[in-house]
Amino acid sequence: MSGRSAxxxxxxxxxxxxxxxxxxALARLEVSDRVRQPYGIVHGGAYATLAETLCSWxxxxxxxxxxxxxxxxxxxxxxxxPISDGSITATATARHRGRxxxxxxxxxxxxxxxxCALVRMTVALRPAADG
Length: 131
Hints:
Blueprint: E1 4-5, H1 9-13, E2 15-19, E3 24-30, H2 44-63, E4 68-79, E5 87-97, E6 101-109, E7 115-127
Antiparallel strand pairs: 1-2, 2-3, 3-5, 4-7, 5-6, 6-7
């Protein structure tokens, strides 16, 4: 599937949304100065934003037909290996798809496929506003 740009915060960072599957979802982020911290490595907030953008988007794609809206509720990131250039690939796997929350595990890897960060993301489901 060809990618599409994220909107709002994700667009500012340059997140490319690739696949919004309800069981697994995929996105990519090119590393540039806009996502690096002063030491030249990707800022932890960029990983958190990438995970929340991907998981909220994938959940929303799955539930919007039911009149529901997906909103990030919790985001817990663990950083394993720094990335300073290339790109980040985010692969999210749905672990729980409930009536009011979905839980995702999102693995972030570098261009060599090495695991660099893990994010556990909880997405709340709420009725979409009418009109």
